[in-house]
């Protein structure tokens, strides 16, 4: 099989600079043939080229722009590029990285097409799809028609979904009660529930705090894919491969929709041969279902100060790293569920591992580490590799092969949103209804009961376990107190002096692997030639703060080893390894000075999870 | 002038493939499928020809199971006007595909057929050449540049060959197969994806086209390539020569 991206991008970088000048000459021809491609929105007609700016481009070609002051060249190219030719021939306009925020101010120009829906949902995950399905069901019940669309940055629905996963079908029973007949990929019922406390050499069996009877071991990626098909059957428009990168605000500062990413921009910000402007998706209502630490959701939370409004504590996160193995038939026990606590994590670090047996001889094994860990030398990826060598875990994996690898951060609630949304659109009721229905639902009850587990571990492993045991077995969630989380995750890291580096064993290639091998297995692929999507807000901080004080923790917590302190030459961008990112967002959360900004890359790239 | 583009639905190029445990083939269940990259390049070239005003219609064709319709929809979203789906289950080898395409050409009567040079799942590199042979049309394969002249009804094709570049002049109707450097395919935009839903995809069965699906080939076994062995550091030149002669048998 061929690998296309590297050969394409390498070759075309040289080709496009040569052809840009000749393309300018084709401009007059190509705009005439623009009639062939009709624009859906009549308001976005092709504005005429202003004579002087056309001249500027003809004289200059791309090298000219680069010599100029960034702002000046930007403005010149902006006025000249005020059209959207359909033939795909575009002169090279140098739009440098630093000015991309300015481009967004111009987003209300008639340059971008805009499509209107009643409801726009960002993210085709379980929450987004449940909301879409529920909305369409309500439409059918009440004889109303609402147009619903879902945008998803993954190349297909399910490509960015990764989770344990032991599934409680309660919500699905409510949403799609016929799921079994309709062949949802939920077929392995939980058969056993084990809970082990691990030390370096032994595993002690503890009573399992979970009761998984009636639950199923599944691959969430496959379930979401199935849900996508169902949603389309209901008439939902799903658009995979399109990343929502900005929020559109209306006149009174309300959210009126989202804008998708421009595609086909090269690393230096110039437009490539296949440049396509993003589109605006406007909705009477917009639902953000991006998953943990969604980039747009975070912006909204900050802008409208949603956490402050309800006196909520800061959100805490954990990083989950997971592999799916195909193991020996004799060791496979479908439906077996195992959770562990303790080794390899130390007493001060909250987290644990899981091992679930799915069907087809596949097992899901993973380690979850809370991101408020203190030791900056901790590398969750290496801890996961260590875990696999434990004498109680290793035999299960022996003789097996790894199929996929992935990582994602998680929050320590979709359908109710749809009901509130429907109410808002159809009956004009207030969206506050969502909060109320949420409070009254069984989800709230469950979350409320579990609220004290994570903060209890603030005080260390043993007190944490003691308090959790107390909560779970005795108080059953009705405790009169609510413990507070400690510091936010990024502030929890101690300075490096208080800890010593951890020596991690080298990967053996059979059970433990090095990072490039694992990344290869996540089927991750981004278009190489695009602007870096991890940005440093202040380029000096890594050298001044992260390295001396915290010994460069980002080189350790990132499960893709994107950050390499020794090679950090260009401070405004992170290294070129952005192309191999599983987009887990750990850096956005854990960086001590919150200096890293995760922006969404070109849609269609990213990991290709199929059985995660 | 009508242009016919044949596209194939294959395992996505970014997927890490595995061999099925029974060694009968590559695992394709739950694996991402997409349009063959060379077919995308072919379609892009056809669209550019149409946008330059030299073609009136671009028709995309695909053969295989019902899911081929997804690939055709992608093609329609890129800009093709119509789609044709020939429904056939089971393995389809290049000669069969070429015969079906010949039958379709008799129905649609295009002046130009553009295809990818090969599919990335079987790497056959045969179908385009076979279609040209069956139809008796000239062929320009491994095209890295295509220029059409409508008045004179000919196509100038620059081909990538082992020794460099070869330029051929073909009388239309002709078959062109595309190579990597011909163009970079466009992204299907959201508005186009929406419009593609209303474009027509016509269904045929091989029986309707009087083509019998039989294969002259049978896949017996598929195995992974052997893992690379570790290298050995030799201690002297004599040892190296000895190994090259007696172990590797290359001298």
From TrEMBL, chain A:
GO terms for MF: 4 iron, 4 sulfur cluster binding; electron-transferring-flavoprotein dehydrogenase activity; metal ion binding
Reactions mediated catalytically: a ubiquinone + reduced [electron-transfer flavoprotein] = a ubiquinol + oxidized [electron-transfer flavoprotein] + H(+)
Residue ranges of every copy of the ETF-QO/FixX C-terminal domain listed in the record: 509-610
Listed cofactors: [4Fe-4S] cluster; FAD
Key words, A-Z: Electron transport, FAD, Flavoprotein, Iron, Iron-sulfur, Metal-binding, Oxidoreductase, Transport, Ubiquinone
InterPro entries (UniProt xref): ETF-QO, ETF-QO/FixC_UQ-bd, ETF-QO/FixX_C, FAD/NAD-bd_sf
One Gene Ontology cellular component: mitochondrial inner membrane
E.C. number: 1.5.5.1
Its job: Accepts electrons from ETF and reduces ubiquinone.
PANTHER family, per database record: ELECTRON TRANSFER FLAVOPROTEIN-UBIQUINONE OXIDOREDUCTASE, ELECTRON TRANSFER FLAVOPROTEIN-UBIQUINONE OXIDOREDUCTASE, MITOCHONDRIAL
Protein name: Electron transfer flavoprotein-ubiquinone oxidoreductase
High-level lineage: Eukaryota, Viridiplantae, Streptophyta, Embryophyta, Tracheophyta
TrEMBL record, chain B:
Pfam families in the cross-refs: ETF
Domain Electron transfer flavoprotein alpha/beta-subunit N-terminal stretches: 23-213
Subunit comment: Heterodimer of an alpha and a beta subunit.
Organism: Hevea brasiliensis
UniProt-listed PANTHER family: ELECTRON TRANSFER FLAVOPROTEIN BETA-SUBUNIT, ELECTRON TRANSFER FLAVOPROTEIN SUBUNIT BETA
Family designation: Belongs to the ETF beta-subunit/FixA family.
The protein, known as: Electron transfer flavoprotein subunit beta
Subcellular location: Mitochondrion matrix
Keyword list, A-Z: Electron transport, Mitochondrion, Transport
Function: The electron transfer flavoprotein serves as a specific electron acceptor for several dehydrogenases, including five acyl-CoA dehydrogenases, glutaryl-CoA and sarcosine dehydrogenase. It transfers the electrons to the main mitochondrial respiratory chain via ETF-ubiquinone oxidoreductase (ETF dehydrogenase).
């Amino acid at each position: 099989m061929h690998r296309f991206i590297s050969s394409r991008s390498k070759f075309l970088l040289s080709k496009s600079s040569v052809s840009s000048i000749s393309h300018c000459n084709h401009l007059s021809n190509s705009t005439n043939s623009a009639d062939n491609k009709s624009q859906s929105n009549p308001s976005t007609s092709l504005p005429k080229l202003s004579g002087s700016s056309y001249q500027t481009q003809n004289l200059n070609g791309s090298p000219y722009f680069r010599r100029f002051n960034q702002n000046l060249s930007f403005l010149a190219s902006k006025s000249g590029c005020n059209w959207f030719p359909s033939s795909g021939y575009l002169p090279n306009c140098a739009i440098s990285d630093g000015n991309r925020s300015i481009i967004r101010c111009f987003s209300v120009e008639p340059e971008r097409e805009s499509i209107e829906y009643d409801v726009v949902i960002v993210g085709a995950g379980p929450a987004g799809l449940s909301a879409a399905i529920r909305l369409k069901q309500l439409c059918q019940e009440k004889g109303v028609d609402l147009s619903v669309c879902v945008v998803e940055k993954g190349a297909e629905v399910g490509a960015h979904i990764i989770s344990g996963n032991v599934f409680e079908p309660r919500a699905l029973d409510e949403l799609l009660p016929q799921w079994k007949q309709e062949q949802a990929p939920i077929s392995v019922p939980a058969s056993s529930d084990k809970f082990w406390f691990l030390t370096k050499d032994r595993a002690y069996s503890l009573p399992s705090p979970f009761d998984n009877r009636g639950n199923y071991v599944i691959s969430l990626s496959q379930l979401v894919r199935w849900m996508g098909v169902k949603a389309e059957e209901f008439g939902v428009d799903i658009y995979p491969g399109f990343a929502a990168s900005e929020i559109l605000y209306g006149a009174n500062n309300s959210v009126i929709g989202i804008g998708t990413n421009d595609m086909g921009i090269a690393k230096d910000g110039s437009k490539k041969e296949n440049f396509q402007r993003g589109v605006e998706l406007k909705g009477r209502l917009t639902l953000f279902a991006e998953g943990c630490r969604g980039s747009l959701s975070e912006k909204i939370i900050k802008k409208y100060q949603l956490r402050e409004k309800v006196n909520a504590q800061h959100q805490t996160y954990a990083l989950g790293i997971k592999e799916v193995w195909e193991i020996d038939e004799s060791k496979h026990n479908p439906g077996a569920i195992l959770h562990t606590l303790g080794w390899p994590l130390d007493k001060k670090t909250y987290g644990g591992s899981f091992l679930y047996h799915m069907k087809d001889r596949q097992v899901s094994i993973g380690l979850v580490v809370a991101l408020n860990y203190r030791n900056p030398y901790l590398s969750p990826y290496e801890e996961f590799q260590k875990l696999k060598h434990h004498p109680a875990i290793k035999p299960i994996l022996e003789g097996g092969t790894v199929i996929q690898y992935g990582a994602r951060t998680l929050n320590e609630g979709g359908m109710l949103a749809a009901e509130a949304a429907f109410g808002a659109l159809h009956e004009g009721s207030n969206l506050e209804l969502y909060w109320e229905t949420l409070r009254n639902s069984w989800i709230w009850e469950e979350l409320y009961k579990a609220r004290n587990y994570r903060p209890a571990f603030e005080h260390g492993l043993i007190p944490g376990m003691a308090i959790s045991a107390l909560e779970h077995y005795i108080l059953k969630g009705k405790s009169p107190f609510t413990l507070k989380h400690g510091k936010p995750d990024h502030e929890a890291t101690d300075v490096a002096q208080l800890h010593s580096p951890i020596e991690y064993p080298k990967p053996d290639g059979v059970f433990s692997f090095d990072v490039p091998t694992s990344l290869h297995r996540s089927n991750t692929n981004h278009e190489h030639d695009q602007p870096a999507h991890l940005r440093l807000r202040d380029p000096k901080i890594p050298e001044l703060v992260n390295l001396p004080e915290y010994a460069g923790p980002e080189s350790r917590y990132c499960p893709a080893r994107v950050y390499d302190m020794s090679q950090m030459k260009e401070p405004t961008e992170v290294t070129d390894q952005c192309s191999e990112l599983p987009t887990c967002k750990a850096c956005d959360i854990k960086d001590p000075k919150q200096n890293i900004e995760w922006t969404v890359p070109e849609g269609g790239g990213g990991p290709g999870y199929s059985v995660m | 002038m009508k242009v016919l583009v044949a596209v194939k639905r294959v395992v996505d190029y970014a997927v890490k493939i595995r061999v099925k445990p029974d060694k009968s083939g590559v695992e394709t269940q739950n694996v991402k499928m997409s349009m063959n990259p060379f077919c995308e390049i072919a379609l892009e070239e056809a669209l550019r020809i149409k946008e330059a005003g030299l073609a009136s219609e671009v028709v995309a064709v695909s053969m295989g199971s019902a899911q081929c319709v997804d690939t055709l929809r992608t093609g329609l979203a890129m800009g093709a006007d119509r789609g044709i789906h020939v429904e056939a289950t089971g393995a389809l080898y290049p000669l069969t595909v070429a015969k079906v395409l010949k039958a379709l050409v008799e129905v649609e009567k295009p002046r130009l057929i553009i295809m990818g040079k090969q599919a990335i799942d079987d790497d056959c590199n045969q179908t385009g050449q076979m279609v040209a042979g069956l139809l008796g049309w000239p062929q320009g394969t491994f095209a890295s540049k295509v220029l059409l002249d409508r008045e004179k009804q000919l196509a100038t094709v620059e081909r990538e060959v082992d020794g460099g570049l070869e330029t051929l002049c073909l009388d239309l109707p002709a078959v062109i197969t595309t190579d990597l450097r011909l163009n970079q395919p466009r992204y299907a935009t959201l508005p186009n994806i929406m419009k593609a839903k209303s474009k027509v995809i016509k269904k045929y069965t091989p029986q309707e086209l009087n083509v019998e699906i039989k294969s002259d080939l049978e896949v017996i076994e598929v195995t992974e390539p052997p893992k690379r062995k570790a290298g050995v550091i030799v201690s002297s030149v004599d040892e190296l020569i000895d190994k090259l002669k007696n172990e590797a048998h290359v001298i």
